[in-house]
Amino acid sequence: MINPSDLEHCRAVIRTGSLSFHAASKLLPSSVRDPALALYAFCRLADDEVDEGGHKGRAVLDLQDRLDKAYAGTPRNAPEDRAFCAIIEAFDMPRALPEALLEGLAWDAVERRYDTLSGVRDYSARVAAAVGAMMCVLMRVRDADALARACDLGVAMQLTNIARDVGEDARMGRIYLPLDWLKEAGIDPESFVQDPQASAEVKRMVRKLLSEARRLYIRSESGISALPARARTGIFAARYIYAGIGGAIARNGHDSVSFRGRTTKAQKIGLIGKASLRAAATSVLPKSPVIFAQPLPEVRFLVEAAADGSAAASKTQTRAAALLDVLAELKAQETSRGIAAE
125, 155 in Cβ contact below 8 A? Predict the structure, then answer.
């Protein structure tokens, strides 16, 4: 399994880089927590390299090489890569799942914007729901209905992140709000990134994003009862802590340009207590019919990749044409940069 020193490195990465996940992970049984920490450390490293590096395209192409090596059983000599390779072998991790994350990071690198809410969900499926599906794999859960609800939770978390970071993203030249919402409000995207303002229209968009996230948080709950009993408190905690960020945004009047919503330590403790009570209730309450709801169209490919019988096939599948296209776009960008620098 995972080398203890590699695991300790991954634990340190999460401790300093993702306070919400670190708090929730303490509630998971070690059989899930340890591989989950390794998974999040690998995903966090990839996200940070693309998000903060000066050469985003090069970082994505580097991640592609790291995935190739990990799936070949010859990971790079780095703790996150070695730990992720161990996860692939131990859990038969479908390659389509980390490649979906790769595609989402590639979209970030080419600074893609999204015309509609469905497009934002497409992006959220890749950078967040894919991680939720991988978490199910770590729990040995391959039931399609449970996977669909895990993807609901991932999309809800990402929509919350987008709602929280409207101002921060704009100041970095990024827009994740649906462009048709901006057009309807008479807001020019380029003017907004040059001078983001918490106008009534922008606050209304933040509220709409949080409303969609809330719908998906509620829908996701029915899937938690399908997870191992000892893991339910941790997943409920993640659900409540991230939803709590939405509550903080609402208390700021849905102004996420001037403020950054966050939960306090005391609030996290209260939400963890609430999660424990909800998890206990799942053992006695009847199964909710909501678990059988169809997956969001944007996450269906993740559910199919992770469900029983799909893992072996997905390892040998050729990368989707869309992924190849965006990687080719990044390679062309890097080539043109190299020529310009000469």
Answer: yes
Structure pTM?
A: 0.91
Q: How many CA atoms lie within 13 A of 86 on its CB side?
A: 20
Q: What is the pLDDT of residues 96-128, one digit of tens each?
A: 999 999 999 999 999 999 999 999 999 999 999
DSSP codes, 68-110: HHHHTT---SSHHHHHHHHHHHHHT--THHHHHHHHHHHHHHT
SS3 call for 210: helix
The tokens describing 89, both together, are: 């072998």
* CA distances in angstroms from 92 to 67, 84, 85, 139, 219, listed in the order given: 14, 11, 10, 12, 28
Query: How far is residue 72 CA from its own chain's centroid?
Result: 25
Alpha-helical segments (H) within 195-294: 200-224, 232-251, 265-281
Q: Are 120 and 340 in contact (CB under 8 A)?
A: no
> CB of 106 within 8 A of CB of 330?
yes
Residue 111 corresponds to which amino acid?
E
Q: Which of 246, 245, 223 is nearest to 236 (CA)?
A: 223
3-state secondary structure of 142: coil
Quick: pLDDT tens for 282-309.
988 888 999 999 999 999 999 999 996 5
Residues 6+ positions from 298 with CB-CB distance below 8 Å: 118, 121, 122, 124, 125, 129, 155
Q: What is the dihedral of CA 261, 208, 269, 220, to 10 degrees?
A: -140
Q: What angle do CA 119, 104, 150 make, to 5 degrees?
A: 80
Q: Tell which residue, 21, 37, 133, has the closest CA to residue 80.
A: 37
Q: Rg of the chain's alpha carbons, rounded to an integer?
A: 20
Distance, CA of 7 to CA of 35 (rounded, Å): 8
Cα 248 from Cα 158, distance rounded (Å): 16
